[in-house]
Amino acid sequence: MTTNSHPNWMTFDDRMTEVAGILAAGILRKARREMSHTKKDRTLADNGLDVFAEKSVHWNNKPLPKGESR
């Protein structure tokens, strides 16, 4: 990589190398996070994200009693 990291001073190849490095770092971070979650016997769905809305415990996804609306 070049020492000049300002996009106006980089060639197309330098920019693509920079982008590839950023993407690779993100992929590695995600893989490490997934392995960390797996080691703790947790799935990615256990991190507070509601992946399965039909099985949700959150109030806004539960059916309302008859005659009520939001």
Can you describe this structure?
This protein has 70 residues and is mostly helical. It has one domain. Helix content is 40%, strand content 0%. The protein is elongated. It starts with 11 loop residues before the first helix and ends in a 31-residue tail after the last helix. The mean pLDDT is 72.
Which secondary structure elements does this structure contain, and how are they paired or packed?
Layout: H1 12-39
Largest sheet: none
Number of helices: 1
Structural class: mainly alpha
Count of discrete structural domains: 1
Number of strands: 0
> Which range does the strand content fall in?
under 5%
Shape: elongated
Query: For this entry, what is the oligomeric state of its chains?
Result: single chain
Helical content, roughly?
A: 40-55%
The Rg value, from CA coordinates, equals 22 Å
Mean pLDDT: 72
> What's the order of the H and E elements?
H
Low-confidence stretches: none
Span from first to last CA? 55 Å
